[in-house]
Design brief:
heterodimer, A: alpha+beta, Cytochrome Bc1 Complex, Chain D, domain 2, 11 helices, B: mainly alpha, 5 helices
Amino acid sequence: MKKAIAISSGAAALCLMVTPLLAEPDDDSLVINEELQMVTETEAPDHLEYVNTIYSGWRFRTDETQALQLDDFDNPAMLTVDAAIDAFNTVDGSEGKSCASCHAGPEDFAGLTASMPKVIDGKLVVMEDLLNNHRAKAMGAEPWKWSGQEMQGMVALIGLQSRGMPVDVAIDGEAAPFWEKGKEIYYTRYGQLELSCANCHEDNYGNMIRADHLSQGQINGFPTYRLKQAKLISKHNRFRGCIRDTRAETFAEGSDEFRALELYVQSRGNGLSVETPAVRQ
Amino acid sequence: MKKLLFVAATAAVTALPIHADTVAPTNVAFSDGAVSGSLTGVAGDPAEGRILMNKGSGNCIACHAVSALDDLPFHGEIGPPLDGVADRWSEAELRGIIANAKEMFPETMMPSFYKTTGFVRPGNAYTGKAAEGELDPLLTAQQVEDVVAYLLTLKE
């Protein structure tokens, strides 16, 4: 906000012209509940060719938005997470079982989100797939809608068990072909505006695009609670929005293209802390 | 988003009728990134151009700061500020940059405003659905002339 006003003055505009350096993310440090120190900035993983340092999206948000993530009592995502705890213990489906019938508690899944997506039986699997497979096979229950609040609440509850752990997703071996496909999508300039993810989130992070302060488009905080929509947003929903805004035909949530893109984008965040559930404007 | 669509729709309507001597998007002749003749034969209107710099199909200030448009909020930092742009570029060069900036700056992030082919998964405006039939350019030929006319007022 401050920045946008500053640029519209001629003098500042001239400065920008002679120093076309990236505007840096802020210097704030993220400690949750006064005890959990998060890594919001670290050396980029080796596979990144054009970026030296990776940053959490939190570092690009205003102080007001940042504050909502400092304490779980202020974090509006926690209401949906609480609903997921109830769902975990509630019987659903033809088998008469709840998650709790077979799993002691969500704590059982500590570390899982930090390593997702991953290849299981030759298929690239994201958390939403695990949950719906389980509901169908173990419980005889109806699948949850991909970006619905039941699904994203459970994705967030399981992600919370990895909060503070470094993102560490495998990109070699069986994952390699999926990762390559995701990378190709990341660098493709889609739509009538011909913009790739990299145009905005690699070449221009730190810069303003209209009223938005561009981040690196990391997904270590997903699902995120978006204040504008007042609910949890899935990764695929965010991807869809970003591609739609290039005046392109998007891919569907839960498509193989978005699974591959999720793996690739997640790998660009290897080393950042899992921040789930993060809060965004 | 609804607003954007609305602006784009009215723009298309007011741009009619198309003059017989309008150069089609697929027929624009670039020379070193510049386009020498008018696309329509009708002089551009800088006041219309000023409006197009803001929201809607132009949305230039999403990426560029312009001091003369200080009354509008939120100027972007993706491209260079456009102050004094008429001192740096000729009318023909500016027309070329607006029509298809990739002719002047290969690989640039700036969209091609008077181009209708060669896109990957083009959409139906901002719906996220596939485009139906032929695409309209982001700006009509006359709107390109209007924006050029406005840019020519940006002298230092």
